[in-house]
Amino acid sequence: MNELMWLSKHKKLAEKHSGEWIAVLDNKIISSGNSAKDVLKLVKEKGIKKMPLVTKVPRKDEKMYIL
To answer: What is the pLDDT along the chain (67 residues), one digit of tens a residue?
Structure first.
């Protein structure tokens, strides 16, 4: 399943990271942090070579952004 579709079907799981950036790969959240840079650094440190979907989980007053 594509990460964006997975994320849209698992909004409750993502909402636990409200206001944070997350990386989604292979149908799971693999890292989270305060910035996209921090999230990608954690992904790299885990030795993951495949590029994840990186997005900020919006607070109720924000819109979603996808990189």
So the answer is: 588 888 888 888 888 999 999 999 999 999 999 999 999 999 999 999 999 999 888 887 877 666 6
DSSP letter assigned to residue 61: T
Copy the structure tokens of residue 15: 């909402």
E strand or H helix at 21: strand 21-25
**pTM for this predicted structure:** 0.82
Vertex 28: Cα angle to 22 and 32 (nearest 5): 20
Q: Any residues with CB less than 8 A from the CB of 29 and at least 6 apart, and which?
A: 13, 14, 17, 22, 23
